Amino acid sequence: MGVCGLNYYAFLKRLGKERKRKIVSDWNWDLQFFADEEKTEEATPRKLQEARKKGQIPRSSELSAVVTLLAGFTALNAFSQIILNRLYGYFQFSFSSEMLNTNLDEIALANIMNGTILTVIGVFLPTGLTILAAGIIINYLQSGGIFTLEPLKMKLDRINPLQGFKRMFSPKKLVDLFKALFKLGGVIIIIWSSFKGPVFSLAETYLLNPTFQVAATIWRLMYKIVLRVSLLLMVLAVFDYFYQRYEYRKNLRMTKKEVQDEFKQTEGDPKIKSRIRQKQRQIAMRRMMQEIPKADVVITNPTHLAVALKYEAAKMEAPQVLAKGEGYIAAKIKELAAAHNVPMVENKPLARTIYQTVEIGGFVPPHLYQAVAEVLAFVYKLRQK
Which residue range(s) make up the domain with 118? Predict the structure, then answer.
C-alpha cells in the first residue's frame, strides 16, 4: 500500500473518531434533570397545618378497632346479667300457655312485634352506645376533632394505573400484609389453644345440664378468647400507631428548595409581616412601660405628649429618654408615673422637641442641656423638700 493509501486510511479513521465524538457530545444529557431531588427536610409547621386542613393526619385503624372491640365486649360483659334476664323473660313470656293459647289477630301480632323490638333495643342499645362512644373518643383523640370533606373529593391520581401499581408494591402495603398475617396467625393460635382443653369439659357439661351451665361455660370461654385477642391486637395497634406517625412524617418531607420557597413566601406575605411588626411594637411598648418607674421626671405637653427622662451623673453624659408617646400612650405614661410617684413637669416646647428629635433609649442633644437641666434642678428641689 502506497503513501497515498496510508494517508487516506488515516483520514477516514480520524473522520470516524470526530463523528463519534460529535454524536456523544450532542447526546450528552444531564441525568440530574431526570432525577427527583431527594426529600430530606422535615415538614415545616405551615405544611403540617395545610396537610391537617386537608384531612391528612396520622391515624391508626388498628388502634380504633381494638379500642372499640374492648369497649363493646366490656359493656357486653357488664350488662350480661341484664341482657340474660331480659331474654329469659321474653322467651318465658313468648312460650307461656297464655301466649300459646292467644288468637293471632292483628292486635296480637302488633303486640308481639312491639315486644320483640323493645326487647332487642333493650338488649343491644347499651352495648351499641358504648361502642359508638368509644369509636368517637378514640378517633377524636387521634385526629384532634378535625372535620373536612377534602378526602372525599375525586382525584385523578387515584385512578391512575401507574400510581396504583406503585402503591401496590409500596412499603406500606408490605406492612399491611405483615399486620394481616400477624392477626390471622395470632387469632388462630389463640382460638386453638383456648378450645383445645375445655372442649371435652363443655361436652360433659352439656350432657349433665344442657341449659344455663353450657351458656355460662361458652360465655367464659368466649370472654377469655376475646380478651387474649384484644391484648394481641393492642400490641399490634401500638406498633401501627407509631408506624403511621413515622409514615405520615416521611410522606410530608420536603426538599431543600421547597423549604426555601416556603420561607420566601412566608417572609413576603404582607399579613405575616404586619403581624410580626405588631408583635414587635407590643413587646417594645411593654419594655418601655417597665422603664417608667426608673425615670427621674416626666415632661408633658400637658395633654398630648409625655417624655420620661432619667439622669445619673456618675454613669451618663446626658439625660436619657426612657419612654415617650402621644395620645393614649402619653396618658399611660402619666398614669404609671403618678402610680410610682415620678414627678411630672409641664413644658410644652421642651416636650415637643424631645419627642420629635430623640428616640427611645437615646440621649438629650447638647442644645437642650440648659432646658433639661432647669427641669431636673426643679425636680431635685422638690425632692429635698
Answer: 47-147+161-257
